[in-house]
Amino acid sequence: MITKRIIPCLDVKNGRVVKGVNFEGLRDMADPVEMARMYNQAGADELVFYDITASYEGRTLFTDILTQVAREIFIPLTVGGGINTLEDFDRVLKCGADKVSVNSGAIRDPGLISRAARRYGDQCVVLSVDVKRVDGQFRVFAKGGREDTGLDALDWIVQGVKNGAGEICLNSIDTDGVKQGFDLEMLDAVAALVDVPIIASGGAGCKEDFLELFHHKGMDAGLAASIFHTQKVPIGELKKYLRYNNIEVRL
Amino acid sequence: MIAIVDYGVGNLFSLSSSLKALDQQVEVTADPRVLDRADRIILPGVGAFGDAMAKLEATGLVPVVKELAARKPLLGICLGMQLLFEESLEYGRHKGLGFIPGQVAPLRPDLKDPGLKVPHMGWNALHILKDDPLFQYIREGEYVYYVHSYYGKDCMESTLATSDYSVPVTGVVRRGLVWGAQFHPEKSGDTGLRILRAFSQL
Predict the structure, then answer these.
(1) Tag placement on chain A: N or C end, fewer CB within 10 Å?
(2) B190 by DSSP, 3-state: which?
(3) Considering only residues 86 to 145 of chain B, which have any Cβ-Cβ distance to chain A shorter than 8 Å?
(4) Splitting chain A (251 residues) into consecutive groups of 10 residues, what average pLDDT does each group show?
(5) pTM of the entire structure?
(6) Which domains does chain A have, with CATH numbers?
(7) CATH 3.40.50.880, applies to B2-200
(8) Which candidate in B90, B94, B142, B186 is catalytic?
(9) Beta strands A77-80 and A99-102: pairing type?
């Protein structure tokens, strides 16, 4: 059967991985290419590269890195950050990305999802959403979680899937960085409404959190950054633990 | 030299990179002379069947591919595998290349577990039904990466391997010198590379 997926996320700024980087045993602990190699060996099922550079130079550096990774790492690569137009899709797909994740770009221009899905197929378009509870409502936040858009997250996600998003990456701002577990209430609410794969993000602190996640219906993948980067939760061990607990994973 | 047929469908970067990582000479081409020189041919593809078949026909390469497949190994990948079939039911009824008897049909109505998602996307174990030189470097049950909503059916005679998605999903087919893989070997990590290595030695 199809496996649950474990996905490390690499935030790249000016050619370096930032956020919670403290990798033992790597010569250059923040080199995205070296980290990608390591994660590939460790058994990551997919890699997400998030470009958090704002400058033109940073962007060029990012695509160079992506190309280098895609030349030697042969697992699915998802790219996000600064995706606002079809040209941005084109740019990263040509460098070897398999899926492209849109977030703020889709909020500014909701037609982006359908245009991209028509051109590249639904499977290529990941709708990434940063969500936070405001007055008892799940609200979409933009600009890296700084700005309340006023949009209802559940409506936004359902609409995004209708428009052709082939996968949802749901990041709960409420649990992000707290390391007390994924936001299962929020994830369940989304899983009840859509039938595309859901990547859970935000809140994982230990391997038990992943086991709990995968006991919930409709959860396909767990994404995290610093707990993998710091090897607090080594991917190989995590996957063995999941397999031992009857969750099918690729070992 | 391995020639990857370039008919304007999909992204060939990973595929050619994976073959280069195996020290293979690769040419991405729509030139019949290059295809003729090649030792092996790969037919890639993503997107919709009808559209891809129309593009392949537009290149004029259909008779070339048919002729070459009689005398050198050809591997269709993902939609490239589906094109090897007689026909597909994706958005209408479309004729394929006809190497593999059978039909490409939507996965959704055939799933025994309606809770499963379509596309069938992610890593799934490959169950080997018939031994084949293509599998010489892999074992039973290794994981490969799939992304598709349609699948080859009524093709049991040509089926070498399947993956379980509440129905057996056709994973690898073969007839003569024509092989097809529904999954993406170029995205299936080390397992995928070993399948491509075996192909490069066929």
Answers:
(1) C
(2) helix
(3) 115-125, 143, 145
(4) 96 81 53 93 96 81 92 94 92 91 94 91 93 96 89 98 96 89 97 95 96 97 92 96 98 91
(5) 0.94
(6) 5-244 (3.20.20.70)
(7) yes
(8) B186
(9) parallel
